[in-house]
Amino acid sequence: MNLSNWNSSFGPGPLFIAGPCSAESLDQLLQLAVKIKALGITVMRAGVWKPRTRPGAFEGRGATALKWLAEVKQHTGLAIATEVVNPQHVEKACEAGIDIVWIGARTTVNPFSVQEIAEALKGTDKIVWVKNPLNPDLSLWLGAIERINRAGINRLAAIHRGFTPFRPARYRNLPLWQMPLELKSLHPQLPLIADPSHIAGERSLVFEVAQRALDLGYDGLMIETHPEPDKALSDARQQLAPEALEEMVHKLRISKTSSENVLFMNQLEKLREQIDHIDRELIDTLAARMRLAEKIGEYKKENHVAVFQPERWKEIMNTRPEWGEHAHLSADFIRDLYRIIHDESIRLQTQIFNQSEQHDAP
Ligand code: PEP
Ligand code: MN
Asked: Which atom of ligand 1 is the closest one to the Cα of 195?
């Protein structure tokens, strides 16, 4: 992908973006913009077309709100970001002088919609952010980013807003951190911005998600902020009041992605060497365990005993997390690890069961 670095022009360090879920009135936007600007934040977000899950919910103020956003921009100098769902929105956003448009999670899932938006963006100078799709599909997310990039837009970012859970969980949307990090390792030049508000879904949890993202080296944060969050017309539970935003901005620990400090780098190198050594041992140990599992597979086959032995599996799942806890490893981690190890043992033993017998020539 042909990407250009646009975010550093907004200043050093992670990019902070704040603003309401939805633009509700000029007064709301102006009140907020002044406070956001006073915190040194340079980009304001506000949705004017809201793709809602259920009909009848507040669907945004539409084109009228674009005029308010243009006024906020003129008045404060803040860069303005809004969501576009179709080519008409792109056209209207361009007319209103919006700086940044984002593609929402419900649009990223549909390549036809993304392609139409990409066509409409051709020849414009917009910065475009692509939110992850609702479902954890890295190719779909990447595909949407590529479609926009092929339309000649190279000022891009990926926004991580989490994935729809299949049962109630701590957060409104599952973060599944490994997926955005994989995207980052595939495209290190593509800025990765977290949207802790839509991940958390609840204002008391926004900080911990934001901190986690910064600790992982994210390039920015987008925080939904409202002058009176409880009265917000959309996403009321997750929006922060300006005072809470201020507190959060001051409390967040920002870590650098690398360091020039030679001492630190030397120490890091030494520790990494030790880890490399341990990883080799871990792999040798795992290989030895798998060879034993294969041997057991052969015995089971000879004795016509099934590959999966529920009692043994139960015993492993009872004892290993406990052993782990004695070694100060979290029981959940050990459970997850043994699920993977056990799956592989079963796979190897099944392979042995399916091998046709080698008949020696008479
Ligand atoms: C939003 O940013 O307000 C929004 C609707 O987000 P998402 O597409 O992540 O649900
Ligand atoms: Mn929202």
From this structure: 9
